[in-house]
């Protein structure tokens, strides 16, 4: 990346990676949110939510910086439109983590033990997809140095394909989990049932945006 920066000026990829790091800080706190909620630890839940909100704000600041940089004449080994698309999909991951944190702080959202276990199992599958997307983004330096081609591009392309397959496999799980929740709506206040359907949808969107980050990079690889 230093070589790229010397040749082309200050690289926007540095800011994109910093943005990715802030997004990852948001996403990695989602699982502990559910642990705190299940334990009835309201103080811990609120602390984690505030941390997510702070990292989401930091991600927004970096997003704005990158928008300003992309508005100037910067030479890059990829189209600005492609980098902008990756940035927006990545930023949406932080937004959804923030949405989940917000909903879980509205009221006591604990579920019956069996349902809670199913929600956490589903969440773990989704977070694995997010981690895979973060791993793909961590290879941005290598891709930039090889102008998004060559052996590194092939390796990343395989990871993106794996991510897409994993995302497809989670769609049926979302439907099954939502059905299981609605089948037990007699155990929950109607408002909480509605909120849980929303939370499950937000969790699913984490995986969808992770997949779109991968697809954004894939489109760049196809051009090389």
Describe the structure concisely.
83% of the residues lie in helices and 0% in strands.
Would you identify the CATH H-level superfamily? Phosphate transport system protein phou homolog 2, domain 2
Per DSSP, the total helix count is 9
CATH topology, by name, is: Methane Monooxygenase Hydroxylase, Chain G, domain 1
Specify the overall morphology.
Answer: globular
Description:
With 224 residues, the protein is an all-alpha fold. The protein has a single domain (2-222), classed as Phosphate transport system protein phou homolog 2, domain 2 (Methane Monooxygenase Hydroxylase, Chain G, domain 1, Up-down Bundle). Helix content is 83%, strand content 0%. Helix 4 (42-71) runs antiparallel to helix 5 and helix 5 packs antiparallel against helix 9 (190-222). The longest helix is centred in the last third of the chain and has 34 residues, at 150-183. The chain is globular and about 60 Å long.
């Amino acid at each position: 990346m230093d070589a790229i920066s010397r040749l082309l000026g200050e690289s926007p990829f540095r800011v994109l990676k910093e943005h990715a790091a802030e997004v990852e800080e948001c996403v990695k706190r989602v699982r502990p949110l559910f642990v705190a909620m299940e334990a009835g630890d309201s103080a811990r839940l609120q602390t984690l939510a505030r941390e997510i909100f702070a990292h989401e704000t930091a991600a927004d600041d970096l997003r704005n910086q990158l928008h300003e940089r992309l508005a100037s004449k910067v030479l890059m080994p990829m189209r600005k439109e492609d980098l902008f698309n990756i940035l927006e999909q990545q930023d949406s991951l932080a937004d959804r983590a923030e949405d989940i944190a917000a909903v879980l702080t509205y009221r006591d959202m604990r579920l019956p033990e069996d349902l809670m276990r199913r929600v956490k199992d589903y969440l773990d599958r989704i977070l694995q997809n997010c981690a895979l997307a973060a791993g793909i983004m961590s290879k941005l330096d290598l891709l930039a140095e090889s102008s998004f081609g060559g052996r590194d591009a092939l390796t990343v392309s395989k990871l993106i394909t794996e991510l897409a397959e994993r995302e497809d496999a989670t769609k049926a799980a979302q439907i099954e989990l939502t059905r299981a929740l609605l089948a037990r709506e007699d155990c929950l206040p109607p408002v909480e049932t509605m909120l849980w359907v929303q939370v499950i949808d937000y969790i699913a969107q984490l995986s969808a945006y992770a997949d779109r980050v991968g697809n954004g990079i894939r489109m760049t690889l196809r051009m090389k």
